[in-house]
């Protein structure tokens, strides 16, 4: 069985981290921590100048594995998923080198956390982005959605659990390029080559500088959101919403 998270050095200085967790790339607790470790490890390697984060299968990412959470009545999986997501999102943001997200198909929930914290986003023309959290009785990643769209659109998408496509995000400037699905990997690598060709000492300093002037405290903001998810779980709201999602055949 193939690893859920794999890393390849496709060209000098370019690391490609791939998520492959069929059927929808919804990650388990361990999967989120493995993703965080893979991205962080590449940033620590002086031979790595840039990371491309991509996925196999039907879509980029469908968030957390709801079945795993629902199977644990003691909330250990829920706590683990929250910590795992926070670790993976932080790994993208804090990676010592730029991270390019190559997005295809659906990018939902935790996928927004990864993409919102990426340095560059390239998407295929079939890509859609959204947070279905309110329909699952949860909250989170509005912090990251707010990095992709303007404030009022973010709120509308959040309250309605609606999605936007790659062309809309390109209009807002958060997606750098939109290409046909078959050209996505090459489009991401084209940007990666431009970055990898530069002095990595300068690029690493630039990443630190850009994070240092970022007006959004992404780590604290996301953890604040997660506190409301815990409240909803304690009140029984989230458990009922997740079970309804699974009972209606949506949790593949």
Automatic annotation (TrEMBL):
Keywords: Lyase
Keyword Cell membrane tagged: no
EC number(s) on file: 4.2.1.17
GO molecular function, one term: delta(3,5)-delta(2,4)-dienoyl-CoA isomerase activity
Domain of life: Bacteria
PANTHER family according to UniProt: DELTA(3,5)-DELTA(2,4)-DIENOYL-COA ISOMERASE, MITOCHONDRIAL, ENOYL-COA HYDRATASE
Family: Belongs to the enoyl-CoA hydratase/isomerase family.
Name of this chain's protein: Enoyl-CoA hydratase
Organism (species): Saccharomonospora amisosensis
